[in-house]
Amino acid sequence: MLLAEKIDNKNLYSPVEALKWIKENHFANFDESVDISINLGVDPRKADQMVRGTVNLPHGTGKVPKVLVFAQGEKEEEAKRAGADYVGGEDLVERISQGWLDFDVCISTPDMMKHVGKLGKILGPRKLMPNPKSGTVTLDIEKAVKDIKKGKLEFRTDKYGVVHGIIGKVSFGIKELAENYLAFVDAVVKAKPPGARGKYVKGVFVSSTMGPSLKIDPNRCLDVDLEEVA
User: Fold this and answer.
1) How far apart are CA 149 and CA 121, in angstroms?
2) Is 189 in contact with 222 (CB distance < 8 Å)?
3) Most buried among 86, 181, 223, 230, by the most CB within 10 A?
């Protein structure tokens, strides 16, 4: 039987049921990620319906991201002490403009944005552009780097009104996955924009990297009893 055939497509799962199914049925010979997609009732083409925010996953994603920091002087040293993988100024801007993109997150001090802004066409489409709203344009470089290394994620709707994210690995315990799931969904719910009308959360789906998608009941998407999975 194909793995997808084991899913009852007529059934809406509770969050814990879906996460347990993924842990019990993953099959790849590597530690798959557990992915989440949330279909929202918004039109991201309208400014007052854009959903964007950050979330600190209690247990991280299972991957330590490579962090690049645009900074100079004292802030450059602060970034290095905090654990940034790459730190620099206009030299990094030039390197990226030539096609180098071996990093996952960009942070910048405010004064460097006049240079970083030149990379908008490169970093923007890849969702790597530093932004004050996500805390990646800041003077508190140490906190920004450490938060991201610990599992802080930025999320935003794509052009279809869907938010995508990673909430861990299949090797995580069910409680760790449930706590990460709850943190992510709660952050998206709280980021409801003022222009949203009607039903906000229309669908929630979880899957492993190679596995089929399971649909969670949107009316129960925050229905997680952590004591049951302790």
Assistant:
1) 26
2) yes
3) 181
